[in-house]
Write a structure and sequence with these properties.
Blueprint lengths: L4 E6 L4 E3 H4 L7 E6 L2 E6 H7 L1 H4 L2 H6 L1 E3 L11 E5 L4 E4 L5 E4 L4 E2 L16 E6 L5 H15 L4 E6 L9 H10 L2 E5 L3
Parallel strand pairs: 1-3, 10-11, 10-12
Antiparallel strand pairs: 2-5, 3-4, 4-6, 6-9, 7-8
Length: about 190
């Protein structure tokens, strides 16, 4: 793809945001990260392939247009995440069911090196705000502290368990800690 990757935003659905797209040059690219996959295209692609969206009242006046289901024309712009959407199946009695077995792709990442010891480590604890996460994490910390005294224990909360942590929060956690633990706590 030509042009620079100029903006990235996250949405629960494939959503075109006027404030993010209109300032771009035609060959600049934007990325939309959704649970259905990550979509990347240039402003030119958007204007050509999604010309109906670019002219819609929702996009022009309200500032955004979102799809409740990913249209097939958007699938060519998937660059990561689910490589095919959930397929819809109709049962003989007319009910609709969804097959959730999409193929998920992710770039491999190297794990951080294991710490030799925990004595004197600044420990970060990220609570994802699920009901029992805080209780579980505090018990894990207590168990770890029994064997190794930490220099400091810092607690952080994500805004929502259903969304990625905010970039500024993650940067702060990385800067203030030597090791971090998190848990789902369901």
């Amino acid at each position: 793809m030509a042009g620079r990757l100029a903006t990235i935003y996250t949405s629960a659905r494939l959503t075109f945001r006027r404030d993010r797209i209109e300032p771009l040059d035609l060959d600049d690219r934007f990325r939309v990260e959704t649970p259905h996959g990550t979509f990347e295209m240039s402003k030119r692609d958007f204007q050509q392939v999604f010309s109906n969206v670019a002219r819609s009242t929702s996009y022009v006046e309200a500032g955004s247009y979102n799809y409740s289901r990913v249209p097939s024309k958007a699938e060519v712009f998937i660059v990561g995440g689910r490589s095919r959407p959930m397929s819809e199946l109709r049962l003989p009695d007319g009910r609709i069911v969804y097959d959730p077995r999409g193929t998920v792709t992710a770039e491999p990442r190297e794990l951080a090196a294991r710490l030799e010891m925990l004595d004197g480590v600044r420990l970060g604890v990220l609570d994802n705000t699920k009901w029992n996460a805080s209780k579980l994490l505090r018990r894990v910390v207590a168990g770890l502290e029994a064997g190794s005294p930490f220099a400091q224990v810092n607690f952080y909360d994500k805004e929502s368990f259903s969304r990625p942590g905010a970039a500024d929060l993650l940067d702060r956690i990385a800067a203030e800690n030597d090791a971090v633990i998190t848990a789902i706590g369901d």
